[in-house]
Amino acid sequence: MSTDYAASRVSHEGADYWLRRNDDGTKSLVIAHAPQAVLDGFSGQAEGDVFVAPADADNALALRKALPWLTPRRWGLETSAGTGDRLGLATPGHAQAFKDVGGVNPVFAQQSTREMGRTHRTPRNVLDDATWGAFQEGWTDGVGADADHQKTEESLSECAEAGFVFFTIDPGDGMDMAAHDDDEATVREKAARIDLSSLDTSTDDVVSRYAGQTIELESGPLVLDEESVLRAVAKAGPALVRGLELIKHVEGLGVEHELEFAIDETDKPTTLVEHVVVVKELQRAGVELISFAPRWVGQFEKGVEYIGDRAALAKNFSDHAEIARVLGPYKLSLHSGSDKFSIYPSFVEATRGVAHLKTAGTSWIEALRIVAAHDPQLLRDILALSLDSFEENRHSYHLSCDTSRIPSDLPDDRVGELVTELDSRQVMHVGYGAVLDEYGTRIKDILTTHEDEYAALMKEHFIAHIAPFGKR
Ligand SMILES: [Zn+2]
């Protein structure tokens, strides 16, 4: 028996739309009372007095055109959160959480180029899956779409073509982390060598522009001394140049867009002076940022609580937030933000909600609870394969897991603990590429068969993430 998703039913311009689950687990869009001109946009067929179309890529595009709230839009300075979904099955549960909390704007479609490579998904796949998921839950309050951690012109073009509107520019590979701690002579030497001509400036110009300046923040003056400015140039100069190239590329595409500048995937915290110099130089080049993702103090590891001094982090949040208010305003973005429940309140307070929360892999790792419950042996196999590829994967991520602590003798009814325990959780968190290659179909089958269970799990998990950002 096919079943209709009651929550999906929506009316627009006299026509009714809903989603149906077919006997074989596939899904179809059903349309009633629509004029022929609307139906012409979809590929499907009449069945009795309704029109039925497969939930495929072409029809996702047509649906975004027919129901404008499914077309990605910019959120500007409004509070927002990106959920990420490597499997393409998590959006219904995400949407339930956003409905429940209220006041937080969703970015369901969000995936980095690295993740798309490992999951063999295109920007269109990511967007289409998010479209069907949002539609299934009857989400009508608008959606964003984040082309996350973009490092090349090619992938920016692909994401723009697919319909993404939020571009996370990541020139972090060009950061010189050693310059964070180099002695002053080395910093001077490094800074002098950096070519800033594409920003129509030079290191000497930058020094004369900022050294000795004071930024009046709410909590007091921030003095930009010469050494700190030089250090900012030495550390972030090449990233600034590369970032501007990527931004100019986006601006040249002629698409609706908003920009986040992300230097979070680096080893050393972003200094306050670095924040000021980077943003002011981008602004001088005519760039308007909507969001900035610094590297905060402490450790932001995948899928686990914040590791570090929470009071120091709260101070770090408020320092950067004060700068963002004076120079912008623009949002501050909290990356690797999943499962860090203890720090959301201080982040929201510091930014006054001019904030973006970004989670990527937590929907993947949590999905493995459903796998553990229904096929414990598959979960063991997933862990084994993740361990095989761990040395290769761990380079891309910040992790503190110790594989020797992972138990290998858990009975079926306790296998789910492997999803909770830090060591096995992190190993599986980053092992998704190889695991999906090998077991993707079986995992997706389990999640599709038990989709209500997965949605309920996602709902609770994301309420815990976004409630501190929501209506209070
Ligand atoms: Zn990030």
Automatic annotation (TrEMBL):
Its cofactor is a divalent metal cation. It comes from Propioniciclava coleopterorum. The keyword Metal-binding applies. It catalyses: keto-D-tagaturonate = keto-D-fructuronate. A divalent metal cation binds at residues 149, 302, 335. It is an enzyme of class 5 (isomerase). One of its GO terms (molecular function) is metal ion binding. Its EC number is 5.1.2.7. The gene is uxaE. This is Tagaturonate/fructuronate epimerase. The keyword Metal-binding applies. Belongs to the UxaE family. Catalyzes the epimerization of D-tagaturonate (D-TagA) to D-fructuronate (D-FruA). Keywords: Isomerase, Metal-binding. The active site is at residues 148, 260. Transmembrane segments: none annotated.
